[in-house]
Amino acid sequence: MKPIPFQKELTVTAQHLDEHKHVNNLEYVKWVLEVSEAHWIAKTPSEIREKYAWFVVDHFIQYKQQAFLKDNLLLTTWIESYATVKSERRVQMTRQSDGKTIVEAKTSWCLIDSVTKKPTRITSEIIKPYFESA
What we know:
alpha+beta; Thiol Ester Dehydrase, Chain A
């Protein structure tokens, strides 16, 4: 199955910068979480979102380039793979002016039942909207 990417645009503002006048590394982590959540909300019916939540297991982030004030970034995310209760989501952040990759991230997520707060199986109903039909 081929993943369906989701994209979100973002413009770097002064609040995103650190003392070196480039984007603070913590901002990239926030953006990984924000674009992931936006994808979940855009693709998943509310009744499923009420039953389940995703908890981060781990992040792996590669910083490829720096981003600066007023850079327009394109955040692209997709589900790379999934198994019983976990999925691996990728995020790529690209500067729109030159097409350079700023950040590549891999995040492992665990699907949690919102009531029991325990890991729960990823069903086809949950994962289907994120992949092209065969």
